[in-house]
Specification:
By secondary structure, the protein is mainly alpha-helical. The chain has 21 helices and 2 strands. 74% of the residues lie in helices and 3% in strands. Strands 1-2 form a two-stranded antiparallel ribbon. 56% of the residues are buried.
Amino acid sequence: MSAHNTLWLTIAVPLAGAVLIAMLGRRPNPREAVTLVTSGALFALVVRLWFALQAGERPSVVLVETLPGLPLAFNLEPLGLLFASVASLLWIVTSIYAIGYMRAHHEKHQTRFYCAFAIALASTMGVAFAANMFTLFVCYEVLTLSTYPLVTHSGTQEARRAGRIYLGLLLGTSIGLQLLAIVWTWTLTGTLDFRHGGILAGTASPATIGVLYALYVFGIGKAALMPFHRWLPAAMVAPTPVSALLHAVAVVKAGVFTILKVSVFVFGLDLLAGNSVTDWLLYVAGATILIASLVAMRQDNLKARLAYSTISQLGYVVLGALLANSLGILGSTLHIAMHAFGKITLFFCAGAILVATRKTEISQMHGLGHAMPITMTAFLIGSLSIIGLPPTGGMWSKWYLALGTVDAGQFVLLAVLMVSSLLNIAYLLPIPVRAFLQKPERGKIKGIQEAPLPCLAAILFTSFGCVALFFYPDPLYRLAQLLVTR
């Protein structure tokens, strides 16, 4: 199969899977088999594109020319391939986990769940391989709309309220700010194509460029930069597999990926590095990192603590993009993958605890490690990766981000990264410490056992991935290097 055909199939295959899932709605086993086969096929297609990129191929596809100069088009480049690789691999793992979770938790509307999941992954592939800002914006909005029924899955009043916050903030920022930035870019340049080195150099004054960049940074609401972050903790009412999708596989990663894409391919690092007007955004990202960490420390609900942790960790990626140097971009690109494996492990563990014990509060987890040793050991590994400690992959992305702040002469932001890592320790490590080192309350863990096998298999895979990425980061590093060395 040619790389050209493979590229458009990465969007077509998940959409075809969604149709088949809907048709098999009354037959759970075939429906879930289609989910697994579709996710496996998508990953195989992305692997094929990986080999094509290594061979020097750069396939592109134009689906339709909507207006002159505004096609819906896709192409292959290193940053998009890295994002697509992480998302497609973790879709397989999340699907396996979801089967165990949804059945054990006796969730309703499972056909709608798996169908929306597949559409969300199709739109994620569209975001990853978008050849221009118009295509990316369309796929970005489809991702928002396709994940709304997942956020409101339970149908409760709380879920509907969370859904309103979710749609309100994400559509409000994208239409009110990001779309304005896109139109403004079009009027300045006459194109929305992604080009290495950017398209805006020499088109406007530094002040105009600074305002335009701020519109993009805040308009990409999925990056959860404060003050446009409330949708993320609100969405935690969704089932745990959805939380994993939001935090690791698709939604928030689509946000920070888009900021990186805009920084490198619309503005260009040289233009941003020479623009002092954008420096204040660095401190917005730094404040997001610290404030979200402090809020996370105050949360007793496990998913709420992890949600605010995600907001903080997304700030790392945004910070690296705003540094506008090669080391910062390397760190940000690697953090997309490293955070994905660490955070999905933590959410998988939170869901396993809920399924096995019905516990949601950290204060209820005394001695839980004695009843669920695999789950809580995996939680420890995921925590180490989020903190950035060896032997986990999270160390490498934080290392390059720290080097990026030094290279930019931003020693205050280096201190922010160091303090944030200490705060990560403070709000994550007490959870496995409580589980393993504190005695369980009498009778509280009696009869508790590990979650169903599909959940455990997914947890073991992602926690192993956290460690494997410490010893074998080279494939991701080489992709990230291609982004900054052309």
